[in-house]
Structures are given as structure tokens and as C-alpha cells.
């Protein structure tokens, strides 16, 4: 309605973000963040005791077959797994987290310089990419940095996080390439198959900041969603709050110091023809006194759409395993995802072939 739209515009144009609301001393969250009674009733914070797999890459050369098997199982079921001994130094992970936190805790006038909703702007700070489409706003601020395939000019990054972001981007690209090799092998394909499909060609780094929430029972840190990319690599701090939806309910993803969390994206589920699963996940509103910080690396060409068309990989198809999805471009997929907003429903259903969609209904 008009009142809500005006409240959204007022908040957005203030450029203060959720962090600014907390700094102003509020004790109640604004109405734009409050869930409906139906949404509140649907939030079951009691998670089932299912463990997110932990995969150790320490002896990857000797144990590659076992590692690939473990990844195949995790990617094909819960869609998430934690990786330890991944090769990125712990010191760099800690410096990246510190830089992400320090940006969001800068004086408001310095952060406001980076505030933007321009889709093609490479570095931008904002609250909720779908602020004007969502049923309720999420209690989270984000600094988004488009790092590849076009190399980002370091001068576009905030000085406080510039050097560490460039180095983390370089190292996470190397690690991501290894993960795509292992995923290719898990599909029974050559190691470089997914890389040749440009799955590892582009990536964005998003620095998320979840301030303490005075009424955490009334909103969410981030609404239930799946990621519209090929793959996400997440670095999270010790606060917790991330949950994954399984067949048995919501599963907590406990922070593991020094580990990187990996989850399958929608586009990888599409091209694997449902062999790999892109799973709904969410973050509860922060109930702690300290902010929650995470750094997500999205492997996607979403902001550099090519004319390339993606569909189920032909080598994976057979009479018994026909294609589930139609072909689509990354631009079409991402545009649909963004226009839809985070509504708790997978964008993949829109791209199912007609006969498959009829069977599933």
C-alpha cells in the first residue's frame, strides 16, 4: 500500500541501513521489517539434529576418490557441506571477516558514498536487494563487490577493505576452481567440464552484516531462499543463525572456525538435471549482542550475462533420465529471480519443462 511504499522509500533514501537504525537507539523495529502473523507462525526455530557434512581436503591427492564420493553424496542430498584444509590461510579468512565488519561499522557518511541500487554498479552498499518486492524487509545490510570476470579496479573498493578483498578474491577463485573440478568428477565428467562451461568464470563477494535485533521474533535476517548462481562459498563468524531446509525440517549450520561452507546454486541444479540440489536456506534475526558477519562468494555471471544458453548437461541424460528443465540464459534466470524476490519458493520451478511441471502438480 501507499503508506508502506512511502516508509520503504524514506528508509531507503536515508541510506543508513539496519545498522543506522540500531545506532539511532530504536527499541522496536519499524513496521516494514515485521512479518505477517502467517509468516511468524511458519518460523519453526527448532531444528532437527542433522549434521552438515565436513569434507577434509588435507590429503586430496591420495584420497581424491573418497573426497569426490563424499561431495557427490552431500551435493545430491542436503546441498551443503563444510570444507576444512582448503588451502586459504586462516589469517586471510580472519582479515577478510575483520574488513567486512569494519566497513559496516564506518561512520554513516562514509558508507553512504557506496549506497546504490544501480544493477550494474560493481561496488554497492544497500539493505535488501528486493526491498521493494519483499513481503517484509530483512534485518541485514550488504556490501556487494563484482570481482570477475572483468577485473575490478581496486580503487572502486572502500579503502578499509580494499587490499584484503582483492587477495581473498584471488584465492577463493583458485579454491572455487578446485571445487568445480571435484563436482565435475562427482557427475562422472572430466575434471574441467564445469570450468569449460564458464561456471567458475565470474564471481561476486558480498559482505553481509546482521546487527543485533531488538525484536528478533518479528523478522528474519534473510528470508528462506536458494541461490541463483552455480555455487556459493561462505565464510561465517561464530555467531550462528544460518539454517538449511532438509526433509526433516530446518537444520542449524554451526560455525566451524577456519572452514568454508559450500552450497549448490540453482544453475548447478539445473545443468546437473537435479543430480545436485540447490536447497532453501535462511538466517534467523540476530538474537545476540554482537553483530553477525558473513562473506559470501557467489560464482555467477549474473551481472555479465552472455548469450550462452544453459540446460541439462547432455552427457547426463538418457531415456531413463530425460531433461527436467528447459534451456535458459543466465540473464533470463537472474532477471526472473530478482523480479520474483525472496518469497520462499525456488525459481527453478519456472524453468521446468511443461510435461515435468504437470507431473509435479
UniProtKB/TrEMBL annotation:
Its cofactor is Fe cation. Keywords: Iron, Metal-binding, Oxidoreductase. Residues 201-301 form the Fe2OG dioxygenase domain. It comes from the Eukaryota. Pfam families: 2OG-FeII_Oxy, DIOX_N. One of its GO terms (molecular function) is metal ion binding. SUPFAM superfamilies: Clavaminate synthase-like (SSF51197). PANTHER family: 2OG-FE(II) OXYGENASE FAMILY OXIDOREDUCTASE, OXIDOREDUCTASE, 2OG-FE II OXYGENASE FAMILY PROTEIN. Belongs to the iron/ascorbate-dependent oxidoreductase family. This is 1-aminocyclopropane-1-carboxylate oxidase homolog 3-like. The gene is LOC101514272.
Amino acid at each position: 500500500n501507499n503508506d508502506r511504499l512511502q516508509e520503504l522509500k524514506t528508509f531507503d533514501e536515508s541510506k543508513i541501513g539496519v545498522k543506522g537504525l540500531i545506532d539511532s537507539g530504536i527499541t522496536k523495529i519499524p513496521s516494514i521489517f515485521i512479518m505477517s502473523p502467517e509468516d511468524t507462525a511458519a518460523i519453526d526455530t527448532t531444528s532437527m539434529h542433522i549434521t552438515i557434512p565436513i569434507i577434509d581436503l588435507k590429503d586430496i591427492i591420495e584420497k581424491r576418490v573418497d573426497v569426490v564420493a563424499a561431495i557427490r553424496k552431500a551435493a545430491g542430498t542436503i546441498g551443503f557441506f563444510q570444507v576444512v584444509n582448503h588451502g586459504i590461510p586462516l589469517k586471510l579468512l580472519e582479515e577478510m571477516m575483520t574488513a567486512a565488519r569494519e566497513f559496516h561499522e564506518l561512520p554513516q557518511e562514509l558508507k553512504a558514498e557506496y549506497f546504490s541500487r544501480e544493477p550494474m554498479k560493481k561496488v554497492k552498499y544497500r539493505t535488501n536487494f528486493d526491498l521493494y518486492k519483499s513481503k517484509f524487509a530483512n534485518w541485514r545490510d550488504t556490501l556487494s563487490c563484482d570481482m570477475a570476470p572483468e577485473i575490478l579496479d581496486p580503487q572502486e573498493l572502500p579503502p578499509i577493505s580494499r587490499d584484503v578483498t582483492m587477495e581473498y578474491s584471488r584465492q577463493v577463485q583458485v579454491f572455487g576452481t578446485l571445487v568445480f573440478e571435484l563436482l565435475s568428477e562427482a557427475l562422472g565428467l572430466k575434471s574441467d567440464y564445469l570450468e569449460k562451461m564458464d561456471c567458475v568464470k565470474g564471481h561476486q563477494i558480498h559482505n553481509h552484516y546482521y546487527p543485533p535485533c531488538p525484536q528478533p521474533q518479528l523478522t528474519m535476517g534473510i528470508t528462506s531462499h536458494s541461490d541463483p548462481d552455480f555455487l556459493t562459498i561462505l565464510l561465517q563468524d561464530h555467531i550462528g543463525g544460518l539454517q538449511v531446509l532438509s526433509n526433516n525440517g530446518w537444520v542449524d549450520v554451526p560455525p566451524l572456525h577456519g572452514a568454508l561452507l559450500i552450497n549448490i546454486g540453482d544453475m548447478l541444479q539445473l545443468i546437473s538435471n537435479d543430480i545436485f540440489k540447490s536447497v532453501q536456506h535462511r538466517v534467523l534475526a540476530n538474537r545476540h549482542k554482537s553483530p553477525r558477519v558473513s562473506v559470501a562468494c557467489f560464482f555467477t555471471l549474473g551481472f555479465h550475462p552472455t548469450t550462452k544458453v544453459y540446460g541439462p548437461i547432455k552427457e547426463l541424460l538418457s531415456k531413463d533420465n530425460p531433461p527436467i528443465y528447459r534451456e535458459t540464459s543466465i540473464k533470463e534466470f537472474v532477471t526472473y529471480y530478482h523480479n520474483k524476490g525472496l518469497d520462499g519458493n525456488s525459481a527453478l520451478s519456472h524453468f521446468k519443462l511443461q510435461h515435468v511441471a504437470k507431473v509435479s502438480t
